[in-house]
TrEMBL record:
Organism expressing this protein natively: Tepidiforma flava
Alphabetically ordered keywords of this record: Signal, Transport
Signal sequence bounds: none
Gene3D superfamilies: Dipeptide-binding Protein, Domain 3, Periplasmic binding protein-like II
Protein name: ABC transporter substrate-binding protein
Record has ATP-binding as a keyword: no
SUPFAM superfamilies: Periplasmic binding protein-like II
Taxonomic path: Bacteria, Bacillati, Chloroflexota, Tepidiformia, Tepidiformales
Superkingdom per UniProt: Bacteria
Family that this chain belongs to: Belongs to the bacterial solute-binding protein 5 family.
């Protein structure tokens, strides 16, 4: 905690800990933490996946956190890792969860190069489980009808952001026009083979906090059906016409800065470009670049229109305070809205979950009204497993590792025969 409070730049969530006033070791097994003010997300703060513990003797300079130095109290221990190829862990016999768990001796996560490798691995049972897209899942289920399907929404999302200090994005009418004109349902079809959903700001799988879908169906940009899409386009074009009645657009195409890996994988920028051309007649130029470079341009207001992925979070405060509060460390828009600040501060103090959820709804309504950016779509993840795999965990975001401890292999299941 002291390392994180000290402002170590390698710890990306250091600003979270600014709410702590003091730390005191009050006994060999207890630490007393005093906060500067009440905060509803305090428990989440300490349990966050980024709040990991590093033994001082393994990182004497506070920064040397490497693969070899990763330690913790989880159900599995690292064996080896090759980035974007595979990762292997083995059972932690000293895990505090106990009760014979974890049941698995180990887990290997592999990244097949082709869909043929996935199918081959499942057929030979070299793979027990595969996480795939909807189209491949349907193909594999036809080929191997014994496979059991698990699905869950994932809070990772694809989004657009605008710079509110750059023309034309500093005009609310222009932001409305392009945000409402984007066809989110077509994105779900293109990116996820239809296996996904639309979100306000908090991704739809995070049902604890996200604005109900029933409310979204009357919001511009979210209306369902052909009639809804036509209404979205009418309002988007009207907003653009209102903007053009007073202001002009640059003669050159508007640059859209996109994370290069995302553009290569799904063509996010190209889809946005084509949709805005078809809907509004706007000319967009897609500019792919590495994420690290794009982040720098966002913070310096040199990427006024940007698109890419983000991971999503668990607690409401993580979704709103860093990004939309005037003092938020990731408020790259930058948005300054006193009414929104007041709502965000109020939810931090609200300990009643129902009341806090209602505040979260009000915050998302305000974000939808201001349109500083938009969470577009999130995927519904599909996992296919052989029936002998029991208790396979899927979750909306990080933090499901402990639930792998309850996953087990039923060797008595008939489909276990022939497993590699």
């Amino acid at each position: 905690m002291e390392r994180q409070l000290s402002g170590d730049t390698t710890f990306v969530r250091a600003p979270q800990w600014s709410v702590i006033d003091s730390l005191e070791v009050t006994s060999p097994t207890a630490i007393t933490v005093k906060l500067k003010a009440p905060i509803a997300a305090a428990h989440h703060l300490f349990a966050d996946v980024a709040s990991f513990i590093v033994a001082p003797e393994l990182a004497p300079d506070g920064r040397d956190i490497t693969l070899d130095h990763q330690v913790g109290s989880g159900p599995f221990l690292w064996v080896e890792w090759s980035d974007q190829r595979f990762a292997s862990v083995r059972r932690n016999p000293a895990w505090f969860g106990g009760d014979r768990r974890p049941y698995l001796d180990g887990i290997s996560l592999v990244q097949p190069r082709t869909t043929a490798e996935v199918e081959s691995g499942l057929r030979t049972r070299a793979l027990d489980v595969a996480v795939v897209n909807r189209t491949l899942a349907d193909h594999l289920k036809r080929a191997l009808p014994q496979l059991v399907e698990y699905t869950v929404g994932h809070s990772m999302f694809f989004s657009v952001r605008y710079s509110l200090v750059n023309h034309p994005y500093n005009d609310h009418r222009f932001r409305n026009a392009i945000t409402w004109a984007l066809d989110r349902r077509e994105m779900v079809r293109k990116f996820f083979d239809g296996s996904g959903g639309l979100s306000p700001w908090v991704s739809w799988p995070v049902s604890r906090w996200t604005l109900p879908e029933s409310e979204l169906t009357v919001v511009p940009g979210y209306r369902p059906g052909d009639g809804g899409r036509e209404a979205d386009l009418r309002e988007a074009r009207a907003a653009l016409d209102a903007f053009r009645s007073e202001k002009t657009l640059p003669a050159d195409p508007l640059p859209l800065f996109v994370v290069d890996a995302t553009e290569s994988a799904i063509g996010l920028g190209s889809v946005i470009r084509d949709q805005l051309k078809a809907a509004l007649g706007l000319d967009i130029r897609v500019v792919p670049m590495p994420l690290s470079q794009l982040v720098g341009l966002l913070l310096s207001a040199e990427a006024p229109f940007a698109a890419g992925p983000d991971t999503g979070w668990i607690d409401l405060d993580d979704w709103v305070y860093p990004y939309f509060h005037s003092a938020g460390t990731r408020n790259s828009f930058p948005l300054r809205d006193p009414d929104l600040d007041a709502l965000i501060e109020k939810q931090r103090l609200e300990l009643n979950e129902t009341a806090r959820r209602d505040l979260g709804y009000e915050i998302q309504r305000r974000i939808l009204a201001l349109n500083p950016g938009a969470n577009l779509v999130s995927e519904r993840v599909v996992a296919l497993a052989w029936p002998y795999v029991k208790g396979y965990p899927l979750d909306t975001t990080d933090g499901y590792q402990d639930r792998f401890a309850s996953c087990w292999i039923d060797a008595s299941d008939p489909t276990f025969r022939g497993r590699a």
